[in-house]
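Students often ask why we bother encoding 3D structure as a string. The short answer is that it lets us treat folding as translation between two languages. Here is a chain of 361 residues written in the first language.
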Amino acid sequence: MGKVILTGDRPTGKLHLGHYVGSLKRRVQLQNSGEYDDIFIMIADAQALTDNADNPEKIRESIIEVTLDYLSCGIDPSKTHIFIQSQIQELCELSFYYMNLVTVSRLQRNPTVKAEIKMRDFQASIPVGFYTYPISQAADITLFKADTVPVGEDQLPMLEQTREIVRSFGNTYGEGVLVEPSAMLPDNKICSRLPGTDGKAKMSKSLGNCIYLSDSAKDVKTKVMSMYTDPDHIRIEDPGKVEGNAVFTYLDAFSDDSHFEKYLPEYANLDELKAHYMKGGLGDVKVKKFLIKVLEEELAPIRERRAEYEKDVTKVLNILKEGTDYARSVGEKTLAEVKAAMKINYFDDDALLETWKKKYN
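And here it is in the second language, the structure alphabet:
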């Protein structure tokens, strides 16, 4: 059995730098490593509908936007299969079977579900689809026999529930059908949750504090120049704090020594820049202008690739269609194995059909 990765995003808008630092950049590295037999990236539109059921147009409009972001970041459709979740009917069927393997009390104990419910203020009006998301996610992972799932630490309880379902299925129907996945945690934990431009803990579309991958150079400059720094760093000579300072967090994520050599040669590296800022005598504007140059070096190629793909949306649609067709073919095989193990593959079980014929004829 080969090495398989499954990952994805909810299509609720364009992707931003938080997505890029948290997952997209690493996906490209994994894709180009040659270590994996199959890599699937799922556009999780069905999951996004669990808390956007009254606004399907929002999801619909984001499908192409998210795909363009993937392709512009370097996702190669010849190496990675991009597919749309709702178009794989087998996922719904597998989720239904898994519901018999999980108790309501177990779902209630899932820390990630509890945190998400609190964040969305669902209280007692929790959509069942959202509540059972861990089961749906287990189907997403196991239908493609993914043994590796890149996740943040906050998603570990969800992955553990998938492993529990795999073990429960094996104990009930037989081992060897499903694959128990392992988590791949971020390799840069400091920047795995990039803060918003307003200094909030998380970059979020709903908070309007994002720098999008598709932003123009002008938009990026405007957003960086208004970015949250240290509110007590009023005058240039004042000592400043780098901890909790969004500008320096972004520099942690994106800058390296070569950037200083090109754009800020009076400093050898980021440590020297931080030391000067903390000592006093360094203004926010100078640091922000440096960050703009660093980000532009990263974003300009992405912006250019996106512009090329936007000229041929038919090609983008074909990439999505081919990726979805491939995912469906893999899912069909797994579901057939699941149904055989559960003994509900009636018309595909020749021995059973022959037994029935002999018994009743």
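Translate back mentally: The mean pLDDT is 93. Keep this in mind for the problem set.
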